[in-house]
Amino acid sequence: MPASGSPVRNLHTLTEILSQPETWLVSQRELAGNAAFQAAVRAASSRKEWLFVGCGTSFYLAETAAACWMLLTGQRARALPASELLLFPDLSQLNVPDIQTVIISRSGRTSEAVRAAELLTNRHKLPTLGVTCANDSELSKACKLTIALPSADEKSMVMTRSFSSMLLTLLQLAASRSGARSISSSFADISAALSSRIQSFHERVESFVASRPFADYIYLGQGPFYPIAREAALKITEMSCSYAQPYHTLEFRHGPKSVVAPETCLTFFLSESGMQAESEVLVEMKELGGTIIAICNRAPEAVRRASDLVFEVEANVPELALLAPFIVPAQLLGFHTGVKKGFNPDEPKNLSRVVILD
Ligand code: F1P
């Protein structure tokens, strides 16, 4: 029973996590008639470089979007925390032709994100695209164009469905630029695949968390799955005040693996591109005594044998369409770990829903 005393199932953070398959479909339907999205698609055709900006979860979304953009379009794309634009503007290298900037903020009110948008629009005279879940936000006033996804907004402090829905929106924008039709058509498939599994994921995570205590949490991913690992680490930190570290999967061998012990919970976001190399790390960490969670589309036998918990999406979709469903088991791990430790994920310790600076 969480600290709030209300049953777990009544916590809106859990309700929102479980609503993601349906939310993705609603958001995609909203986009079909969204004038701002269509304008962004038209504008994207003349852009040659992209800079994605955000804070917290929205920064990890920016990193994921930048990786997807490069893989889908072949164009140069980068991600920066909004604070870096404000404090170290020369790091952002804005003086390149045909750059498009994208500022991501669920609330559309985060001071650093709004200030970064104002700087890019007003001082640097650059095209700014806002991506948010709020209508009529300060972000939309600071950007030349803004895509809003109100159906993906949340009551919760932590970002869950807003992260995955805005990710799919940016993926759809990248697919429109690259002509990768299979990406846009895959959203119904990942929604259906997750919808038929999410209750089982929820129950399996809850019982796994109840079965044993952990001292720390490691999240591993390569390529566009690395920022998903960073977001997963933030989720369990925000909801359960646990120590969590993300690494590129193969980087974990180069020193950080010294921490591995039975009370270390290692979550692997297994890509299809790097499955062989990444699963070898998974097997090695099991041999070191770690507790292993594997999140993948389909688990090779070696992964199944070495893992304590396996989550498979089993969707016939392009690899990048797996990024959104892959974060869901990690969101559930953060939620149930928080409840087990006596926290209320609806009211995370020390956090506010939006960081507003004076
Ligand atoms: C960004 C953010 C969240 C974090 C917390 C504080 O919010 O850092 O990622 O979980 O809610 O704000 P936003 O700019 O996306 O609204």
Structure in words:
This protein is an alpha/beta fold and 358 residues long. It has 2 domains: 12-184, 3-Layer(aba) Sandwich (Rossmann fold); 187-340, Glucose-6-phosphate isomerase like protein, domain 1 (Rossmann fold, 3-Layer(aba) Sandwich). It is 47% helix and 15% strand. It is built from 15 helices and 10 strands. It has helices at 12-18, 20-32, 35-44, 57-73, 82-87, 111-123, 138-142, 161-178, 181-185, 187-195, 198-211, 226-240, 275-287, 301-306, 323-340; strands at residues 49-54, 76-81, 99-105, 128-132, 145-148, 216-221, 244-248, 264-269, 291-296, 309-312. Helix 12 (226-240) links the parallel strand 6 (216-221) and strand 7. Helix 2 (20-32) packs across helix 8 (161-178), helix 11 (198-211) packs parallel to helix 15 (323-340) and helix 12 (226-240) packs parallel to helix 15 (323-340). The protein starts with 11 loop residues before the first helix and ends in an 18-residue tail after the last helix. 56% of the residues are buried. The structure holds 1-O-phosphono-beta-D-fructopyranose (F1P). The site of 1-O-phosphono-beta-D-fructopyranose (F1P) has 16 residues, from helix 4.
